[in-house]
Amino acid sequence: MSALALELTLLGLLVLTAALTAVIRDVLAATVVFAVYSLVLSLVWILLRAPDVALTEAAVGAGVVTVLLVATIAKTSRPTDHAELSVRWPSLAVIGVFAVGIVTTLPSLPAIGDPTAPIHQHLGTYYLETAPAETGVSNIVTAILAAYRAFDTFGEVVVVFGAGIGLLVVLRQSGITLQPTTGSTPSTTDPGLEPSTTDPHGESSTTDLGREPSVITTTAIRYIVPFVALFGLYIAFHGAKTAGGGFQGGVVVAASVVLVAFGFGIESTRRWLNDTVLTAITAGGVAAVVAIGLGAMALGGRFLEYTVYPIPKATTYGIELVELGIGATVTGIVLVFFFALVGNAETPPGESSPTHTEESK
Amino acid sequence: MALTTAVVAGLALFGLLFAVVAVVGVLRFPDLYTRAHAVSKSDTLGVGLVLAAAAVASGSVGVTLKILFLFAFMLVTSPIAAHVLARSASLDGVEAWQVDPEEREEREETEDDQ
């Protein structure tokens, strides 16, 4: 009874926040509501006994995506006008038909956790019974992801990598370069508030918003970041035993760097990290997965067939290394996205507010 | 068993009360600074009490330890988030809410009359 009440509350919140995200005209408010939607959704995943997905949802949906969206709004514009909400009836009709189709199909699905459901009859049972013994990994989600379905996961990493390259190409097309621009003036602060202090290295110690880093913030970040980064690595490595894995852990590690960037200045963090290092991490992750896969082929096996490696527990180590590669690529890509969108790059004149044109429909 | 349930329910309800106080503060207070104040203070305590309820409900040392770490994390991050918010607002020139001087005089006069 109480479980049903909880489910209904969460689902109600989910529908409400989803609708609000679509209806709210202020993009910043919509972004915040979307983060709430993601958080509620991650709770729903936990109710559905899918903690791996819940972790991803919380880290990516509520965390990184929100940061990237807010950063993009800060970089471009925040359209709050166009308050009137226009409805396109043909679109609504298509959505209506689709919704009716889904709702009428739903009752024919098996109940959640029903052991007699078709998906639990064939392959699922096999995985549950043999995966821990065969792979030496007790989190079966990870075993399937990085061993049985390793080729799919390899594809996913390549997709993430490709998305990063795609974003860089798009940003470059629109004249936003990855190279830090020198001598650009902070645009969002009042002239009177610009601090004049410089750090010992002769560089301006201001963050990119033209502010001195606050002592309270930097001190706290100094203490928090090691724990956050360690937690990210824990999620990545311990994904073999508990919920988690390279995707989730990679995002958390990236989040710790984002924290440093917000506290100590985005451009100085990027200079400290160095674009070359970032590129190496990102490409290195994919390259590691490819190397493990090709190494198996060189030893006479198939692509990513861990068992051909002449070491004990080859599958377990293979899974861990692939997870590490995934984590590196995800960390790198999230940071590439972050620095490309938030970094001190200037929008070329004439293209200052691309969101306005989209919003005017 | 019943005692544990009562303790858990009591802690959770008490925590919820502080969360409600925070929400009321956000809705009723006039400017960013007072709102940040309402959220950071009452929400930290509210979350702390709900976490305590979760620790009691779990009845396990391992989970309680993790919850203690969570609470320590909350204790550090929540006030700093409020600090960052208020500081950026201040640097952006967001003015703190004040009672209008004329309005204050009027109010004091009416209070004197009564």
Structure overview:
The complex is a heterodimer of chains A (361) and B (114). Chain A has 13 helices and no strands. By secondary structure, chain A is mostly helical. Chain A has 2 domains: 1-78, no CATH class; 137-183 and 203-349, no CATH class. In chain A, helix 3 (51-75) packs parallel to helix 9 (246-264), helix 3 (51-75) runs parallel beside helix 12 (314-342) and helix 7 packs parallel to helix 12 (314-342). The two termini of chain A are 45 Å apart. The model of chain A is unreliable at 178-208 and 345-361 (pLDDT under 50). Chain B has one domain (3-113). The mean pLDDT of chain B is 86. In chain B, helix 1 (2-28) packs antiparallel against helix 2 (32-58). Chain B has helices at 2-28, 32-58, 61-91, 101-113. The relative contact order of chain B is 0.12. Chain A binds chain B through residues 188-190, 193, 209, 211, 214, 216-217, 220, 223-224, 227, and chain B through 73, 76-77, 80, 83-84, 87-88, 91-93.
Compact summary:
The complex is a heterodimer of chains A (361) and B (114). Chain A is built from 13 helices and no strands. By secondary structure, chain A is an all-alpha fold.
Classify the secondary structure makeup of chain B into a structural class. mainly alpha
Largest interface: chains, residues each: A-B, 13 and 11 residues
User: Helical amount among residues of chain B, as a percent range?
Assistant: over 70%
Overall tally of domains of chain B: 1
Rg for CA atoms of chain B:
20 Å
Task: Please tell me the overall pLDDT of chain A.
Answer: 80
The oligomeric status of these chains comes to: heterodimer
The low-pLDDT segments of chain A are: 178-208, 345-361
Number of helices of chain A: 13
Q: What sequence of helices (H) and strands (E) makes up the elements of chain B?
A: HHHH
Rg of chain A computed from alpha carbons, rounded to a whole number of angstroms: 23 Å
Largest sheet composition of chain A: none
Task: Count every helix of chain B, treating DSSP H or I runs of 4 or more residues as helices.
Answer: 4
Overall average pLDDT of chain B:
86
Distance between the termini of chain A: 45 Å
